[in-house]
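LAB NOTEBOOK - FOLDING QUEUE
OPERATOR: T.R.
BATCH SIZE: 2
PURPOSE: Compare the predicted structure-token outputs for two unrelated chains run back to back under identical settings.
PRIORITY: normal
REVIEWER: second-year student, initials M.K.

ITEM 1
FIELD SEQUENCE / FIELD STRUCTURE:
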Amino acid sequence: MTRETVARLVDHTLLKPEATAADVAALCAEAGDLGAFSVCVSPSRLPIPPGVLSPAVKVATVCGFPSGAHHDAVKAAEAAASVEHGADEVDMVVDLGLVKAGEWAAVAAQIAAVRAAVPAPALLKVIIESAALTDEEIVGSCRAAEQAGADFVKTSTGFHPGGGASEHAVRLMAEAVGGRLGVKASGGIRTADAAVAMIRAGATRLGLSGTRAVLDGLPS
């Protein structure tokens, strides 16, 4: 896998709470330089000011982040506001309490509420926090996301103490969605070898904060 090929799978990410507008501007400049697919920033950092981001780079943001413990209407409103402010993609955090309780209809209903608030062409990714789930819960979350009309399932916020992406979780998610949805691996991917392993396990998108270091480990 070449540097360019992997770069086009990357959501170049800055979600630190202390990130400033200047930090976001630097992220956007770096994304263009690296050839990343998108930047992913907090909703409060939208809209991206004109001229800061290359037209070739998409804008992603998060919703219900990082806990997922938000009311359906709050998540839907946050997602809709982000799209109004220029987001092309929204990464929403699933309600982990509902997942752990096995309340799959409620999980799907919440995802569907956000989907209705951000219809296509906006992309909706569902963060399932895979490191905190059993295999059965991972599969159930993926099925709920597909049922509700999501475009992607995503491993992690990167903020959960349980950890980030794993090859096992990515492989399980890829099998569950069977190519009908994308799979985003995010959280703790810091080397080229780790990034390639996630892609080989089935990831079709990567969430990276240390993008340059990962790409520097790949052949041109």
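ITEM 2
FIELD SEQUENCE / FIELD STRUCTURE:
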Amino acid sequence: MFVYIIRRLFQMIPVLLGVILVVFLIMQMVPGDPALLLAGEGASAENVAKIRHQLGLDQPVMLQYIHYVGNVVQGDLGTSLRSNLPVLDEIMTRLPITIELALASIFITIVLGMLAGIISATKQYSFADITIMIIALLGVSLPSFWLGLTMIYYFSVKLHLFPVAGWGTWKHLVLPAITLGASGAAIVARMTRSSMLDVIRQDYIRTAKAKGLKQRVIVYKHALKNALIPVITVVGLQFGILLGGAVLVESVFAINGLGRLIVDAIRMRDLPVVQGGVLVASVIFVFVNLAVDVLYRYFNKRIELD
């Protein structure tokens, strides 16, 4: 296991380099000149050229990329063009908020999704099964920003149960977490149902029933553990989707997290913040994928780590 983890950590290096390169090239194609934004309207061409030289924007793109990667290796993500603060400091100020939101959302995704999927599988073709699958289909189909605005209207404006926007208390967390986790819960519910239906038809489940074991023991101890492998895969992928979806949700609920920081940086063409934010999110996602692979081995000893 230790050797496998070390090997996977080394495999992250080209992945992260590729992520940095793709983001770097995309930001180069975004219209607008960061030097002109910093210089302000009416600035002379000489001042704009001076700022471009100070920022290194007058160098070839590949050379800019090489310099940036060299700085990242040393733990330097650059300096924000807007605030003139270290990018890493700005990210670490906002990151805990996004992580808290993502963890709350993934909790909702796992708990609601797996419970719904188990109920659907054990009561196949029943009214409960059909109802849950219809709700899951709606959960996958509804855009997160529309769901967020709808929940704000009913639960905040009409019923006054939760704050409209902002961050600070557990009440501020409820609506954004549900909005962000709803789609994932629907996907996990469908996957759990499908996986559970495959498992409960196996011979060892029939044997357990013939031995007189309680239905609860059969479902949660024997069937669920063997049905978790595809569910774990989906949950791991959903965590990455949640980090991306946080951009919209944080904007809807006016949450000053990493997603909103990246959006504001894109609007201002603050390249170092955009690149640093995406890089940090990519590192988190890569480590989540590593954790998913380790969990495969924990839940199914027959899986070989290769």
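REVIEWER COMMENT (ITEM 2): The mean pLDDT is 83.
FOLLOW-UP: none requested
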